[in-house]
Amino acid sequence: MKKALIAFDCSAPSQKALDYAAGLLPLVPGAEAVLVSVAAGVPYDDAELAEPARSHEVHGDEDFSEELARIQAALSDAEALLRAKGMAGERIETVIKPLRLGVAQDIVDQARTSACDTIVVGRQYHSRVKELLSGSVSNDLVHQASGLTVWVVE
Fold first, then answer.
1. Three-state DSSP class for residue 36
2. 137 near 104, Cβ under 8 Å?
3. How many domains does the chain have?
4. Which residues contact 35 (CB under 8 A, 6 or more apart)?
5. For residue 124, what are the domain limits?
6. Which of 11, 17, 43, 100 is the most buried (most CB within 10 A)?
């Protein structure tokens, strides 16, 4: 493992995945981490993400600035945890990716764009009915991430 994408959505399972990765990545010489949050309601344009102070509207009247600020703060905390565990700051990247093709596919696309060889994701437990109807991101990742290693942390 040279570069791991850690899928982070502020949920308890993603926090477990982050904790797990934070315990291992600093022990791997030269390892890098890409912290990724896929979010609906944030702009698709990178220039818009760089200017959160501007007044933006996405999906009608929804203002994304509060959601973007929440995600940025969570990713900043996640980065701080990796640093506290001994990972050098220049080896950590954070990405907020707009929801486009579905969470799992967007994560796989970002892993490939960032040249990651591993994806670390937490497993969210759903009822069997909900899982049959809506699926599971971790299950979808296992099936869609051909050529990549996927760690599903429970």
1. strand
2. yes
3. 1
4. 6, 8, 18, 75, 78, 79, 82, 92, 93, 94, 95
5. 3-153
6. 17
**77-108 pLDDT per residue, tens:** 999 999 999 999 999 999 998 888 888 899 99
Within 23-146, strands assigned E span: 32-39, 92-98, 118-122
Q: Is 84 exposed, middle or buried (0-12, 13-18, 19+ CB in 10 A)?
A: exposed
Q: Strand 118-122 relative to strand 92-98: parallel, antiparallel, unpaired?
A: unpaired
Note the pTM of the prediction, 2 decimals: 0.79
Q: Return the structure tokens found at 88.
A: 């050098």
CATH number (domain holding residue 122): 3.40.50.620
Which is nearest to 141 in space by CA: 32, 12, 13? 13
Residues 6+ apart with CB under 8 A from 134: 126
